[in-house]
Amino acid sequence: MLKTPALTLRFVMIMRLLLVMCCISVGTPLAAQKEDPKEQKLRAGLAAVKSDSAKARLSLDLAHLLRFKNPGEAQKLASEAIRIDSLAGNYSRMSHGCLTLGNVMRNINKFDSCIIMYDRAIELGQQAGDPAREAKALTTKARFYQILGAYPVAIKSSLDAIRAAHKSEDNELKSIVHTDLAGIYLGSHAQIPHGDNILQLARNHLDTALKFALLVPKCKALPAIYGNLGEVYFRLEMYDEAERYDRLALYTIMNTNGKDKTYAEACALIGAHAQNSGKADTAEKYLLEALHVYDSVGAKTYAPKALIKLANLYVSKENPGKAEPYARRLYAIARAQKNNLHLQEFYSVYSQATALRGQYQLALRYMDTANIYRDSVAINTQVDAMENAERMYQLGLMELEKKYKTKEQAAQIEEEKKSKKDMLLFSAAIITALLIIILVAYYAYRQKKKAGAELLLKNKVIAQQSADKDVFLSEIHHRVKNNLQLISSMLNLQMNAVQRPELSAALQESLLRVKSISLVHQQLYHTNDIASVQLQEYLTLLTDNLTNTLKEHPAEVKISVQPATLQLDLDTAISVGLIVNELLTNSLKYAANNGDTIVVQLSVEQTAPGHYRMLFSDNGPGLPADFDLKTINSLGIRLVRQLCKQLKGTVEITGTRAAAFSFTFLDASARKQIS
């Protein structure tokens, strides 16, 4: 194997850096002149050419170049080239055009059109008698199904590509198709139970690919061969050998193609190996480099593997803020590609990130969704395995019948006097037994497939019911908020109509209580989580409403919630809000001292799972000396006592100079455990 000296690699990197710095120093005009010269050359040639055949060829070359950067123009160029070649009856180049158009369709997520174009490219390659074109279309189709996770179809298409490629004289193509099949085997290892020989199968194809690649100067398949060999050795836990092949793949790319999609795939592979080996910093470096190159060349749809690894890396570092953006990018690509395996990875990592933020109920919902997608992938894999088993069994039956016929003919030559009747009976018995086995296997397969389909349907119904329930509950919160707003309006009208100050004050207190309940439903309506209330946000809204309503004295309310993302169930949040409403209303009315600003301290902390402590105090003159919570009979104090009782909590007065209260309470889940 080749070994790259460290000094040589460093020298190449330093020279490239100096070249970039020199280009920058020359200025913008030089940069503009050297911007994408290949594209400029193709456009100039396309504008000057007069031959239809040459125009079609240049159009396809430019479409291939623009397939990531400008897919709209690439689609038009490829379609025009196909039209010109169809008039000329050039099936070979029509195959190339359909393949290019299929790649463009894949990049814009039009997968049905993409498959149609790939199949058309295969047919045209066969009609043209061009096995190389046929093989290129087949292996491209195989790579596409590999991205989608459809490994049985990908393997079949790749085997067909190898068959076609070996009919050609193109050694580089032979190397590519064997490398692609090895990559598909390695990718399918976690999804389809091939047995312990999967790594050996991949290694055999890589050895074959390397044999053909070494016959071609600067073979395009070499980086992928080295990268897949690194993957084989990594799975064999030969980490030093795996790292050597990873570096060799990267070095080969840098000295042939530069930073293109193939380079990004090598970086993603090295990053994945480093992460699995516990080298977090190295993994982060190469995975970020892979994403940067994918984005810069417009190949974002190839990025799921790097996105999965990055998101999991940051979750392992307990940094959900960095993990979530990559997870959301993975979700967008997986939804566009309809890839249930990647959707399962998204919901799994997003569940962990949400749990790190303390949103455990939401995390459980994401994990349930991940399990649904995992079951869906498992069912599809089992169905595909059954179909493959049935196909292999039928092939085995044909082989048995062929062998049997051969033996029968030999027996007839050697023993002419042997009874034909016994042979026919024996043949009938074997065929009958085989038919019974086939029928039993087919019946079992049909039952398994039916059960899988029913399970998928039930999962879809459950998911739809869950979504409908969320919408229904959200609408309930909206209507409750509107009804409470109507009650508030009526109380406000009544308050303005009465002439007695004590009645007006009582109505205003009732109005504030209704408003505190309304704020809970308002917050739930505007959030995705309709089962719990974000306490910091709710208390801020509540105190702002009270201070704006009772404007007689300037007030400053300081709120502290630990943890900051603390959420409470609906019943508990309403009760806590009513208690705060009563205490804060009392402070705003009675804590003023010679026009000074009223300062209210409010803090809530979680002392144990389901257990909480709330402290409330102001800077007023304090409570009367004979103030007793148990004997005071005012409506506000009675309401506070009753609410504390409902929350299975306690309330007591703390401090001597200012009004200060200490509360303990339980949430709904904790209350159920002791009731």
Describe the 3D structure.
This protein has 675 residues and is of the alpha+beta class. It has 25 helices and seven strands. It has a five-stranded mixed β-sheet. The protein has a two-stranded antiparallel ribbon with strand order 1-3. β6 and β7 (660-666) form a beta hairpin. It starts with 5 loop residues before the first helix and ends with a helix. The model is unreliable at 1-34 and 381-400 (pLDDT under 50).
Quickly list its features.
675 residues, alpha+beta, 5-stranded mixed β-sheet, two-stranded antiparallel sheet, 25 helices
What's the count of strands?
7
Rg from alpha-carbon coordinates = 36 Å
Oligomeric assembly: single chain
Q: DSSP helix count?
A: 25
| Outline type | elongated
Percent of residues in beta strands: 5-15%
* N-end to C-end Cα span: 72 Å
What is the topology, as strand order, of the major beta sheet? 2-4-5-7-6
Overall mean pLDDT: 78
Range of helix content: over 70%
In the predicted model, the low-confidence regions spanning at least 5 consecutive residues are 1-34, 381-400
Q: Structural class from helices and strands?
A: alpha+beta
Main sheet record: 5 strands, mixed
